[in-house]
Amino acid sequence: MRWRALVAFVAAAASAFAFSGCAHHRGARPGQLKLGMVTDVGGLGDRSFNDSAYRGLLMSKKRLHAYIQVLQSRSAADYQPNLNALTNLHFDMIYAVGFLMGLDLDSVAKQHPQQRYAIIDAVVNDPNVVSITFREQDGSFLAGALAAMVSKTHHIAFLGGQDIPLIEKFQAGYIAGAREIDPTIRVDVKYAGSFDDVAAGKELANLMFNDGADIIFTAAGKVGLGAIDAVKDRSGDFIIGVDSDQDALAPGKVLTSMVKKVNVAVFDVARSLQEHKPMSGHVVFGLKDGAIGLTDFKYTREYVTAPRRAELATITRAIADGRISPPDTLQALAAFTPVKL
Amino acid sequence: MSGIFGALIVLTLIKATPLIYAALGGVISERSGVVNIALEGMMATGAFTAVIVSYASHSALAGLLAAVLAGALVGLVLAIAATRFKVDQIVAGMGINLICSGAAAYGLVLIFNQPGASAQVPALGRQYWLLVLLAFALAVALQWVLQRTPWGLRVRACGENPRAAAAAGIDPLALRMWAVTYSGMLAALGGAFLSIGELNLYSDGMTAGRGFIALAAVIFGRWNPLGAAGAALVFGFFEALQYVLQGRIAWLPADAMQALPYLAALFALAGITGRVRAPASDGVPY
Predict the structure, then answer these.
(1) Average pLDDT taken over every residue of chain B
(2) pLDDT given at position B258
(3) Start-to-end Cα distance in chain A
(4) Cβ contact B86–A15 (<8 Å)
């Protein structure tokens, strides 16, 4: 009976592969820019980080007429196989989207020195890898400052995905920004331990709202979708979205989103290839590149009044000229003191 | 303090409910002699089907019923693989997990034209508390069925010694087929609770390993419906406790808190070793 088990397994594995949502391989034309992408476990549809990277790829397809292909990672065990699979298909650039993929990309990149890679949110020191990071702490600082201005309870909260250094950048910047406006504000912090357990996001958000926080900043991938679902049933409470513009997911209840325009970075890397001036080394995107920032408060103007927007603009300038340097770790946060502007 | 206790109780119930459904599904399948590690995939199927049918029909209730039917279908696939084709049950279960999550991911692209997460669909809203109650009611009912009815006795007989059962005039293959089908229905209800009960969308990976935790609850509950439901409550409680405690104890990092439910499970399982006995023919094809 063993062979039957084998047949069942092969059939199951084959269909799982067929269903795994890879783009159709229609084949690239000669001379066409070929771009591959491996998503992080949050995956496409997070309306957040991975989706933003994907929009950059779509923009490259539209404007640079690039051929694109995406492989999604269901778990960390998929990173290397996915990277290797794309490497074997010879792309001009392969994007590894996500901090968690750093080590895997490093070993793949060392084995294939002729293949170009780009990694988002991590620094990988190989000559054939361009590392792209963002100053999330700057945008998170603005989010924290706004939350402190709008909060009626002097009590706000932060909901993280996994407790990793990347998410700590959001957390540290947010808390520092809140203290800049209101030095005695209470900021609760909870982590879901996951980027895709949506239900956990709703449960944790309700818990923190019930504890008295009236604004929660989420940096948690799809977990944030659950938090946005939680805020819909409440009045006077807000979520601050992350990475993509999530304001329209619950109009009027998502105060703003701390957008991280991964799409801009992804597109810039592709364009640099097209122009035969490929980016290399470590490139940092921040407020001044327009790659980090808050949304335009389309649905929440009544809370984000003109004086408050002016105050945010002042802080933005202070960050740009270095008078404020938002902390990117919890140690740096401990040393942070509000700056008189 | 009462605020914390209230939050803890509510959260425990919410966290435990999907686990109870899946664990009851595990119990009925394993008592009949079929190991069911496909609970995770069955939950994903239930969660996904509930969302697409609710989306198409604008009725969360229709979504719920469709989820149960889809779960029955997946259960039937495992049942046929395990009975008619005598496939290794672990391999078949793993295959079903892969197919279910993969098919749902593909379905999102086909139906919502976007990978990863569905649009927001009509959900049960406050009525989801009825599903919480139903979970406990089903645990009691299943306990009664397995211990006190002729059908329950036959299920248990097939799980312990299918040959003896066959000699007594029972058809173990047919019985296992039904038991595994019911198992799929129960697990799918757990999935639907997540997608259109608590939330209003399907997102890849949203079951987040709950099917496997339910499997641990089956063992911890010693293959009894009430035991499994109790175990699910214990897991739910520790999950809720870690949510509530996070950030309240400054020196304990979030990572350590998140390990709490698993540590609890480990100690619980270690504590009952020696007293755990699976049905004698669990996982053995007849």
Answers:
(1) 92
(2) 83
(3) 77
(4) no
Smallest CA–CA distance, residue B115 to chain A, in Å, is 5
Mind giving me the DSSP string for A84-147?
HHHHHT--SEEEEESGGGHHHHHHHHHH-TTS-EEEESS----TTEEEEEE-HHHHHHHHHHHH
A41–B243 CB contact, under 8 Å:
no
**pLDDT tens digits, B1-45:** 457 888 999 999 999 999 999 999 999 999 999 999 999 999 999
Tell which phi-psi region holds residue B268, choosing left (phi > 0), alpha (psi between -120 and 50) or beta: alpha
Residue B59 in this model has a pLDDT that exceeds 80: yes
Q: Name B227's bridge partners.
A: none
**Inter-chain CB proximity B116 and A44 less than 8 Å:** yes
In this complex, do A9 and B91 lie within 8 Å of one another by their Cβ atoms?
A: yes
Residues of chain A with C-beta less than 8 angstroms from the C-beta of B116? 43-46, 50-51, 72, 222
Please, what is the Cα angle at A202 between A197 and A203, to 5 degrees? 95
Pairs across A and B, CB distance < 8 A: 150
ipTM: 0.90
State the residue for tokens 């449960």. Answer: A203
State whether A225 and B203 contact (CB < 8 Å). Answer: yes
Q: Are A235 and A221 in contact (CB under 8 A)?
A: no
Task: Considering the domain delimited by A31-134+262-289, tell me its CATH architecture.
Answer: 3-Layer(aba) Sandwich (3.40)
Q: Answer whether A210 sits within 8 Å of B3, measured CB to CB.
A: yes
pLDDT digits (tens, 9 = 90+) for A86-139: 999 999 999 999 989 999 999 999 999 999 999 999 999 999 999 999 999 999
CATH number belonging to domain A136-260+305-334: 3.40.50.2300
- A199 closest CB neighbour out of B116, B120, B206: B206
Q: Is A210 exposed, middle or buried (0-12, 13-18, 19+ CB in 10 A)?
A: middle
* Residue A203 with chain B: CB contacts under 8 Å: 11, 14-15, 198, 243
Inter-chain touch A226–B199, beta carbons under 8 Å: yes
Taking the C-alpha atoms of residue B20 and residue B13, their distance in angstroms, rounded to an integer, is: 10
List, as ranges, residues 210-269 from B with C-beta within 8 Å of A: 243-244, 246-247, 253-255, 258
DSSP-based three-state secondary structure for B185 = helix
CATH 3.40.50.2300 residue spans of chain A: 31-134+262-289, 136-260+305-334
